[in-house]
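pasting input
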Amino acid sequence: KQEVTQIPAALSVPEGENLVLNCSFTDSAIYNLQWFRQDPGKGLTSLLLIQSSQREQTSGRLNASLDKSSGRSTLYIAASQPGDSATYLCAVNSQGSNYQLIWGAGTKLIIKP
Amino acid sequence: GVTQSPTHLIKTRGQQVTLRCSSQSGHNTVSWYQQALGQGPQFIFQYYREEENGRGNFPPRFSGLQFPNDSSELNVNALELDDSALYLCASSLALGQGVTNGYTFGSGTRLTV
């Protein structure tokens, strides 16, 4: 059974810092992994999708990497801004899960001005 | 994108509720998730070409429909207090064998029982 873990659960850093959020999964048989952002009380905004054959994806200040063999993905945020404050979730589309996404519990990020 | 209605809903225990979703054009799957406060989304079920093709650990009083016009419904009968949550709809394009091109989420419906 696929399990997804995100570390740390919460992170508070000063504005301007580069930071890394971690996501690990127990079963490497995945189709893809997706990073989302969620603002309080709001829906989910897709940030990056990495297919199992890819090693990384980039969008603006965001870079996501995938190491399937070790069951790890990282989300790198460069030059953090207060507007980046949100909860970041990773979700895995796992083989045999019949399209169901398996979710981490999220990392709550606070960027201090 | 994906649109959901209504944005907020208040119901009494024992009542029935219908939540609606309009999928992103061109997508052929729709999934529904329940997200309690401070937790990750929990998979309710997924529809593919108007048939349910996956279900999470939710009782039969949670049911759904997917229509040919990219719209779908989540119905919940005999509402309980624990049903209070944010309900999220997501659509994707299934590429076969469990692979999708990633999920697009709506902003959610906040249900209070």
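fyi Chain B touches chain A through 29 residues (CB under 8 Å).
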